[in-house]
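Usage example:
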Amino acid sequence: MNEELLTKLKSLFQIEFANTDFLKEAFTHSSYVNEHRELNLKDNERIEFLGDAVLELTVTKYLFNEYPNLPEGKLTRLRAAIVCEASLSQFAKEYGFDRYILLGKGEERMNGRKRPSLLCDLFESFIGALYLDQGLDGVINFLNQTVFPRIKSGAFSHVMDHKTNLQEFLQRNGEVSIDYVLIEEVGPAHEKEFLVEVLAEGNILGQGKGKSKKAAEQIAAANALENLREANEIEEIQA
Amino acid sequence: MNEELLTKLKSLFQIEFANTDFLKEAFTHSSYVNEHRELNLKDNERIEFLGDAVLELTVTKYLFNEYPNLPEGKLTRLRAAIVCEASLSQFAKEYGFDRYILLGKGEERMNGRKRPSLLCDLFESFIGALYLDQGLDGVINFLNQTVFPRIKSGAFSHVMDHKTNLQEFLQRNGEVSIDYVLIEEVGPAHEKEFLVEVLAEGNILGQGKGKSKKAAEQIAAANALENLREANEIEEIQA
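Running the assembly step on the lines above writes:
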């Protein structure tokens, strides 16, 4: 097993494998196995099959808990933005996983080490290996240090529609009037900024600033949701 | 909560919910929620989103462990045959879940209670509820009594290619010559039966009978795999 990878996993994530065979399998591409039949190695395809399902459940559970008011259609869209080739290959690169995968010579020449589909599979294989070695808790521990904080910070929220979320939250028990009011328009025509306020039944819930009215409304809605959530938490503490 | 459903779950599967709210949510269709807004109910869509991912992982893990020699492509095909609308809706009907879902009047009139997509969602919702109440162990306990025995008995094996599986098993450490030999052809032309033997490096591994040479070869391969597995188990016991 590559010692550098082991050291990296320990220093970055405090992860130590009890059985490094799983890790070896995760970092072995089929092209390498095909070129070294005499070594009788396992490629990472089966462990990726497992890791994919583990990642799907752990992310699903996180979103289910974190967004108790988000309807199923939106949860599905948000999950698709997280568990996709573009973002998983990005994670694999960011954590330097690409440096350690064993590739066949042909695959190496074809720049396989940089191919998003290969890196995405590698990330899922790693999750599979971690699951086999340390169970779901081990995977969740890793995701708590990597993927989940990104979700929380809004890295995938371009697929979220905050105005609809706010509306659904406010109208969960019936009709509520919601208004977006333009408060201010500042700057020259080509660099305008808009300040918008959102009100429910006439009460101000939040403000948002943006380069267009639409963007400012989205931000106002996101801020309103944040304020409402904080208020709810205070109510719960006082109750 | 419907008492009949609770009794049924207990008598059929020895399942008792600590929190029946999850079960209530799983058995509430959106059409019912829409017709009874005053009751402020939750429909089963979010819990189905969760249950879908739980089922995917539990079935994946089962297949991964049960078929250690099956390559990823075949595991994927087998899983797709299990976790699909046709089979999950069948399970929902078989266990009588269809009788207990709350539907709106329109949905009821449109025969929603028999619609495979609705029944498939219901099965996944039930898995989601069971997971929230009893964790993965609770779900696996249920699947051990329902879905997993079906997999084991070969209910989904029409998607498996036993000849390829046998070849992969025998050639996992290098080339091995495999031959299928027609031993016998009996019966009249329109009702012929074929008896085929499969040999590896000249040693007989198994026999198969079928309505075509191809079918007989598949069965011979399946029997050979079964024989090899048994022989392996004996070796392991003796070792």
